[in-house]
Amino acid sequence: METGGRATRPVRTRRLADDDRGIEGLPVRLVIALVVGVASLGIMLNMLSGLSGLGVAEVDVAPEPTVTEPGPTNVTVRVVDPDGGGVANATVVARGGSARLGGTRVARTDRNGTARLRLDPKLGANQAEGTVRFSVQPPPEDSFVDRRDNSVLLVVR
C-alpha cells in the first residue's frame, strides 16, 4: 500500500488479554510488598504494646494442694514468676469460681513467695466439682503483672 509515495504497514491490533508484559512481575511484587508490610505492622504493634509494659513479667500461682474436697482446708499458694521463682510481698486473692467461698480471702506472700489461706469451699447440691480462682496484686516496686488467668484449686466431691 502506498499513500503519497510512502509505504505503510498494515495496522495489527493487539488485544489486552494477549498482552502479558504489564503484569509480568506484578504478582511476585505484590506478595513481597504484602509480606514486608505485615512484618512491619507486627513489629510496630509489638513496640507500641511493649511501651506500657516495658520489662514486665507475668506471674502465676501454684496452689498446694491442687485438688481438695468441700469443707475447711488450708491452702498454700506460691506466687511464681516466669522462671519459677517466688514473688515476695504480692497480695493473693481467693474467690469462688464454680465453687462457693462465701466471700474473698486475702493473704500476702512471704519472702519465698508463699501465702497461706484458710478456705472453706462449698459445692451445690447436684454439683460434683468446682473451682476456686486466684488473682494476684504484684508488689508495686517490682515489674510484675497479673493479666492472664491463673491456676485454680479444683474442689471435688
Automatic annotation (TrEMBL):
Keywords per UniProt: Carboxypeptidase, Hydrolase, Membrane, Protease, Transmembrane, Transmembrane helix
Keyword Protease found: yes
InterPro entries according to UniProt: DUF7382, Ig-like_fold
Stretch forming the signal peptide: none
Domain DUF7382 as annotated: residue spans: 54-117
Transmembrane spans: 26-45
One Pfam family, short name: DUF7382
GO MF term set: carboxypeptidase activity
Domain of life: Archaea
Protein name, per record: Carboxypeptidase regulatory-like domain-containing protein
Organism encoding this protein: Haloglomus irregulare
